[in-house]
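Q: Convert this sequence to structure tokens.
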Amino acid sequence: MTAPLAVMAYSVLEPALCDLEGTLARVADLGFLGVETYGIVEHYGPARVRDALAGAGLALTSAHTPFPAGAEADRLLDEAEALGAQTLVWSMEREEFDDVASIARGVERVNIAAENAAARGMRIAYHNHFAEFAHTVDGVQAYDVLLDLLDPRVVVELDAYWTVMGGAEPADVLRRLGARAEFVHIKDGPAVSYEDDVMVPIGEGRIDWPGVLTAGASLRWHIVELERLEGDVFDALRTSRDHLVNAGLSTAREETR
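A:
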């Protein structure tokens, strides 16, 4: 089952901070159908980003923004509400996966955020890095400890690339998650170093995308994220779109220029 193709705004953050509307228009012209925000709302404000997305004909898939818990909760939720976001996505820190007590303390923050978001008609999604899979606590993978403790209303955005780097198979993880996995981050490269990896267009790295994406039967969005990329990001996005669409894994519009 295919899912619509989107871009994580971090991929085009540098040009977007110079020209928001022009950058989103280029993303739409390449055939992408949606955007997950990152960095642009903080720079331009939610109203302008919302209007720019609408003007480009792009859906807002989700907002990558800190968990709305603690002193900043109302401000973050107000911002998300003005943006029109339904799902807010964020992560826990690497050191929070050292032991069960640390995981539990981190999850408390996520669950408070889920409660706060629900009161505004929004949801929280959890985005992984590699520590969730690389660490085991009391013989159990840290990711499984996390999932057991999370409020069941929290859905999942699986970053397949960091999952591989953590030593897990994202296809297996997606099958385990079932309907809870609604979003997937798609990036490609060597998957050996969180700090130093240079990404490549989708299909030119080590990730088995047919295996991964066909395992995610409940995925609502396939979100391409190209970070620390060599070369032109729009050329890489075009190559990535072609690979995913031609393989019958994702859906997009025809490129318009």
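The longest helix spans residues 100-119.
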